[in-house]
Amino acid sequence: MEYRKYGKTGWEVSALSMGCMRLPRIVKDGEAEVDREKAYEMIRYAADNGINYFDSAYGYHNRTSEEVLGEALEGGRREKVRIGTKQPYGVMADLKSGGGKDIYDNARRNLENTLKKLRTSYIDAYLMHGIGSGNWEDIKKNKIIELYETFRSEGLIKAICFSFHGNFATFKDVIEHYDWGMCQVQHNLMDIEKEVTTEGIHLAGQRGIAIVIMEPLRGGSLSTPPEKIRSIYDEFPVKRSGVEWAFRHCIDYPEVSTVLSGMSTLEQLKENIEIFNKPDMKAKCLSAEERDILKRVKAGYESMITIPCTGCNYCMPCPAGVNIPGVFGRFNEANMFGNFDQPRRSYGFMARGKADASHCTGCAACTPKCPQDFDIPEQLKVAHEALAGWVE
């Protein structure tokens, strides 16, 4: 497997890294928990077979992901790998309780608990989780970067990093504000013009910031192409899985340090390691013909949108608080890729915020505002029925 530079840190990390957000689970009586024995087996197999970078976060798997990772790496493996984990600004600031006065105490306490869970004295890459337009100004105002610098000076963390979901303009502002160790961004063959965009990846690379790619398979949606997409891939003389095509798109960027995959089974892990062990899985691996195929694949997926919502937001705000474009976006994504797992999970978080379609009152105030002229309340019912029911 190829090992790549991790920005300016001097580290080298495996081109494939393991995410700990989608560890194997046991679901019973409406409750879900990590299947620890299977998770231990996967993490240890990864560490013993070339993967030297692992990613977790404060909230993954109901706050147990870090603990599982720490337990799995005990016994000598921790010293051989790099760990990245994250603390959300909302948790530091205690936003669910209306804002905390002791933001620095909260952040330190959460970091200390994370260190205990991971069974380590330091974290290699510590991320401000989910920086975006909604919290970036508060992060600057409350001097969270300076707080992380204090943690670094105490030897608790090595690199100051962030994860990001949002648009290129905000991303550009964030990376130009500070000399970050790493940025973790969503990118895949469908998101080249969304999220940070391809331009954002190039910009971060020019500044020497390590880039960790998350969602390379779009929550697994790109792993099993429907027949229409499969036929495009099969025009290429070398036959590859949808997974490999998606990974090749990401690894093609020389700026990328590692591609993060949230694998749920040992079989997925072994398959992905095998893909990344291929000698041509390197930067600039795509030919002009392969790039053209990926463009046609993207267009093919986009042609399969079910509900004609363009995300223009003319229907917003909804009097009942429903995130109408968000509901339709998740429904269309699920139908586009023929995979409902990630959209259902995302919809579950939307429901926690009371922005899901179950809160639609049927007032239809949105319908006359829609340029696409369709029955929004009726389609919200359809989308809700398909998306509801995820257990975290």
Write the layout of secondary structure elements.
Blueprint: E1 3-5, E2 12-14, E3 16-19, E4 25-28, E5 31-34, H1 36-48, E6 53-55, H2 60-63, H3 65-73, E7 82-88, H4 89-92, H5 103-118, E8 123-131, H6 136-141, H7 144-153, E9 157-164, H8 168-177, E10 182-186, H9 197-206, E11 210-214, H10 227-233, H11 242-251, E12 258-261, H12 266-276, H13 288-302, H14 324-337, H15 341-352, H16 376-387
Parallel strand pairs: 3-6, 3-12, 6-7, 7-8, 8-9, 9-10, 10-11, 11-12
Antiparallel strand pairs: 1-2, 4-5
Helix pairs in contact: 1-3, 1-12, 3-5, 8-9, 10-13, 14-15, 14-16
Low-confidence stretches: none
Q: Provide the helix percentage.
A: 40-55%
What is the beta-strand fraction?
15-25%
Q: Output the helix-strand order.
A: EEEEEHEHHEHHEHHEHEHEHHEHHHHH
Q: How are the strands of the largest sheet arranged?
A: 3-6-7-8-9-10-11-12
The Cα radius of gyration reads 21 Å
Number of helices: 16
Overall pLDDT score: 94
Give the overall shape, derived from the CA principal axes.
globular
**What is the strand tally?**
12
Judged by helices, strands and strand pairing, the structural class is alpha/beta
Largest sheet composition: 8 strands, parallel, barrel
Could you give the distance between the termini?
33 Å
Explained architecture:
- By secondary structure, this protein is an alpha/beta fold.
- Helix content is 42%, strand content 15%.
- The protein contains 16 helices and twelve strands.
- The protein has helices at residues 36-48, 60-63, 65-73, 89-92, 103-118, 136-141, 144-153, 168-177, 197-206, 227-233, 242-251, 266-276, 288-302, 324-337, 341-352, 376-387, and strands at residues 3-5, 12-14, 16-19, 25-28, 31-34, 53-55, 82-88, 123-131, 157-164, 182-186, 210-214, 258-261.
- An eight-stranded parallel barrel has the order 3-6-7-8-9-10-11-12, surrounded by seven helices. Strands 1-2 form a two-stranded antiparallel sheet.
- Helix 8 (168-177) links the parallel strand 9 and strand 10 (182-186).
- Helix 14 runs antiparallel to helix 15.
- The longest helix is centred in the first third of the chain and has 16 residues, at 103-118.
- The radius of gyration is 21 Å and the shape is globular.
- It starts with a strand and ends in a 5-residue tail after the last helix.
- The mean pLDDT is 94.
